[in-house]
């Protein structure tokens, strides 16, 4: 969790390159990947690959950690939403999981 309340995972963004529609699941929420914070309304949650190249869960103009009641060690799962929609194979067969366990000095 960084100073802004963003949840920093240890999932390398390059691992998502084969996902057609990455969906991040955390604390009962499903979040679409967005390229920037500006792609959502203030107060909305989003997931993105941050400047360190890892998946981050954030809240536009707010704290994701406070809003989701999350802290260091909270599980984060990324699945390919396109596969789930098509029914090609269970999403769990093509998923990445980690915890929000990196501490940022930002």
Report what the structure shows.
- It is a single chain.
- With 106 residues, the chain is mainly beta.
- The chain is 10% helix and 35% strand.
- It is built from two helices and seven strands.
- It has helices at residues 64-68, 81-86; strands at 7-12, 22-26, 29-32, 45-49, 54-59, 75-80, 95-99.
- The strands form two sheets. Strands 3-2-6-7 form a four-stranded antiparallel sheet.
- β4 and β5 (54-59) form a beta hairpin.
- It starts with 6 loop residues before the first strand and ends in a 7-residue tail after the last strand.
- Mean pLDDT is 84; it is low at 102-106.
What is the radius of gyration?
Answer: 13 Å
Elements, N to C (H/E): EEEEEHEHE
Molecular shape: globular
State the separation between the terminal residues, measured CA to CA. Answer: 10 Å
Largest sheet, spatial ordering of strands: 3-2-6-7
Structural class of the secondary elements? mainly beta
Helices, by number, come to 2
The overall average pLDDT, rounded, is 84
Strand content: 25-35%
Low-confidence stretches: 102-106
Q: Percent helix among the residues? A: 10-25%
Main β-sheet description: 4 strands, antiparallel
What is the tally of beta strands?
A: 7
